[in-house]
Structures are given as C-alpha cells and as structure tokens.
Design goal:
The chain is an alpha+beta fold and about 220 residues long. The protein has helices at about 1-10, 15-20, 60-75, 80-90, 130-140, 200-210, and strands at about 35, 40, 45-50, 55, 90-100, 110-120, 145-155, 160-170, 175-185, 190-195, 215. A 7-stranded antiparallel β-sheet has the order 4-5-6-10-9-8-7, sandwiched between helices. It is globular, with a radius of gyration of 16 Å. The protein starts with a helix and ends with a strand.
C-alpha cells in the first residue's frame, strides 16, 4: 500500500513538470505565507483555506517531489531528464498540501498544488487555455501514460475563472485523476492542480477550491 501511495504522490508533480518544461525564464515572485490553515500570496492577491488537518509541504519536501516526478516522467530518457531538471529550476511551487502525511499507509492521498510560471517571454500565451495547450504537448512527450478526458473548458474556483484540463495518469496499475486549473495573471501562468482517485476525494478538493479568493 505504501508503494502505491508513493507513486500517487509522485504523479502529483508530473503535470507540473511537464507544463514547466516548455518555459525558459526563472520566475521571481513572493512564495506566499501560511497563517494557521490559510495560504496567502500578496503578489497575486490570493487567498486559499486549507483544511486544518491537512499537511502543508515545506520547501525541501516540494523540491524532493519535483525531483521524483521528473524521474518518473523521463524514465530512462536522459534528454527528457535534463529537460525536466532544468524546468524544475525554472518553476515556483507556491503551495502543496496533502490530506494525509506523505508516506502514510493509505491507497490514495488527495492533494492540491499551486505553481506559478513566468510567461513574459512567451507573448502568445494570453489565457489559461493557451498555457494548457503547451502543458498537454509537453505531457504527451513524457514517459507516463496520460489521457485528457475532455477538451479544455472554463470553470470557477472560488471567485476566479480558470481554464481547466482533466487528465488521467496511469501510474503502475493505478489511474490517478487530475484537474489542472490555469489562468494568466501579472505576467505569470498561475496553475492549481488537484489530484484524486474517487468522487469523494474530488468533492473534498472542490470544497477547498471553493474558498479561493483571487484579485484579477
């Protein structure tokens, strides 16, 4: 069970790495703060409530997860590994929170992750849907079996409107579901990725996203 859980955790960052692989610049912005169970980011004017019992990852844990995700995505392809290593340096993981402690003996560990990617060098990316187009292309070039459940659509998270892409990732014998929310704000692509395996977990994550406040 722990081995399956580990693979699910790693799958959380696969989409992040794949999306970041098509970007070149080093983002520079506020990482945000956690006060109690509330995440705030002054740069984006953003606020998100995390359930008090959930586990928020520190910078070292987020770095380790990105590295594991890169290895999973690249497989034995050294060229892809080099791309994902570079992309990890060029991406900023603002927030990563899990329902259970990482490594807990559970089959599934629903989580929410937030990332910012600087896009001022890519003027063609004007909307979240543009960013997701490139994210999909990058994911399809990786070594993890993935499928997009339906075309990109718009959906609100809290008081903000995002472009959304629903993705299935095949991790070992298990299928992990993700929803990738993206918007363009202040020269960045701001993405929120939720990872789950059941309708009940999706309901929990939707409740988290419903608390989002974002000044656009």
């Amino acid at each position: 069970m722990r081995r399956i859980n580990h693979r699910i955790i790693v799958a959380t960052v696969v989409v992040l790495l794949a999306a970041a692989a098509c970007m070149k610049s080093q983002p520079k912005l506020d990482f945000g703060t956690i006060e109690g169970s509330v995440y705030r980011n002054a740069y984006f004017g953003l606020e998100l409530n995390i359930p008090a019992t959930w586990n928020i990852q520190d910078s070292e844990q987020k770095k380790a997860m990105m590295e594991q995700g890169g290895k999973l995505m690249a497989g034995s392809d050294k060229t892809l590994q080099a791309v994902y290593d570079a992309s990890a340096l060029n991406s900023v993981v603002l927030l990563s929170a899990f329902k259970h402690p990482v490594g807990a003996a559970v089959d599934s560990n629903p989580n929410v992750t937030m990332i910012a990617e600087k896009i001022t060098h890519a003027p063609g990316i004007k909307r979240g849907s543009d960013y997701l187009f490139h994210a999909r292309k990058a994911m399809e070039s990786g070594q993890v079996s993935m499928s997009v459940r339906k075309d990109v659509y718009e959906k609100k998270a809290g008081d903000a409107l995002f472009a959304v892409m629903d993705v299935d990732l095949k991790v070992g014998k298990k299928t992990v579901k993700q929803m990738y929310y993206a918007t363009v704000l202040k020269g960045y692509a701001l993405s929120i990725i939720i990872t789950y395996t059941s309708p009940g977990e999706l309901k929990e994550l939707d409740a988290v996203l419903s608390t989002l406040k974002l000044k656009q």
